[in-house]
Structures are given as C-alpha cells and as structure tokens.
Amino acid sequence: MYDAFNRNINYLRISVTDRCNLRCTYCMPEEGIPLLRHKNILSFEEITDFVRTAVSTGITKVRLTGGEPLVRKGIVELVEMLGQIPGIEDLSMTTNGILLKKYAHDLKKAGLMRVNISLDTLDPERFREITRLGDVQDVLGGIEAALDAGLKPVKLNCVIKKNRLEPDALLVARYAEDKNIQVRYIREMDLDNGIFYEVDGGEGGKCNTCNRLRLTANGDLNPCLFDKASYNIREMGALNALSEAVKNKPACGTLNRKGKFYNIGG
Fold first, then answer.
1. Which residues of the chain are under the pLDDT cut of 50?
2. Measuring CA to CA, which residue among 6, 5, 9 is closest to residue 245?
3. Range of the domain at 233
C-alpha cells in the first residue's frame, strides 16, 4: 500500500491492551487512568482477522505493543495465531521486560521473532523513580531470557531527555555493549503539543519515510501517532479502515490530543 506521499505502508503496530504493570513518568499518570472496558477491547480473533486482511493489502511487519502486551491474558496464544498468517515477515513485540522471563521461551516457540525491551537506567533507585513500581532486576532477567530463547535481535529502548550522553543512558550503553545488543535512544515526546524527535539508532520519528499504521486495543486504526485521525475497524470494516488510514496518512505529524502513549503504543 502506498500513501499520497509514495511511502510504502507495510508496518502495523498493534496495542493489545491499554493496561500496564508500571507507571513510567513519561508515559502514564500514577493513578486515575480511564481504562477500556473488556467488551471494548478487540478479541484475539478480531485482531487476527484484521491482520490477515492487512497482510493481504501489503503489511509485512507486525509489532505487538501496549500498554504492556505481556499483561494481556493469553498473549502467547495471540502470537501463535498471528505467527500462522502467511506473509508476515517480521513479528515482534515491544515490552517493559518485567514478565519476559516467564514468557520468552513460549513466545519464541509461538512464532515471535524479536523483541524490543524498555530500559532507561541500570540504577535500581533511578529505575524505581522512573517506573514508580518496577525492579530493574526483573527487566535484566527478562533480557537474559530473551537472549537465551533466541529472540533475535534483542534491542533496548532507552528514553532520554536530550541525548545519549546522559548518565542513565551511558549505563544502558555499557550494559548493551557487554551483551552485544543494540540500543535505540528515544527523546521524551509530547502528544498534546506535537513535540517529537527522530529516534537515535532507530527509524521512528522520520516522517518522510514513515511506513506505519497503529491499531489500538479498541479497534481504532491511526495513520500517525501525532495526528488525531482514526478509523475504527469494528465500525468501518477492515478494508475500509485500512484504505482511509492510508489515504489520509499525513505528510508529517502535528499533535494528538485524543490519544495517549499508553493506549496507542508509542
């Protein structure tokens, strides 16, 4: 699928839940989050049917996000369902890693190919401060499990204020070098005010080559993270939603006061 700016739209990010077991300061408020009701969340069958249709129109890359995807009950089953769809060349997941030690091997067996793991610091106190709830040792255990399971490549997502030379980012860089894994440095962004940056070490934030669509847990298909436009697949049907999302994908992001990082998937 090509959009109006001749970008090949072949990448679908799916937020399978708006729930998370952390409360990272740059992503979620500590409390008072309006969560989706169970009946509003897409079933595994709805997600799989939509992905099958999306693949038939040119999607080849699928990434599962959240919230935190590993808190979605039965997530391994969903991965297995998606892994059986012919035409998916890259099936991946972004996770905070807290539960990855438990699920890594099962995810690999189910068909997950690779994983990005959020890690903003190696300092336990700083990690607790950033996430409000987390223990960095759980994440490190998840990284080891992912490597052991053969999820390749394992990449780290490190959120920064300005650049990769900040103390926390340097700790992550040294750890990644020891483990021979890649790091993507992501500056804090602001949906409400349209503040976003290119990802240092990754493809995110590069509007002129953006090839992504985003499906939220309640079925809204978003052509751009920094745009309020969305097309609900339950209301419109898969093909119509895909067609409208691609047709109306903007040249560049502006702002989005409708969505939040934790329910769009970043």
1. none
2. 9
3. 11-264
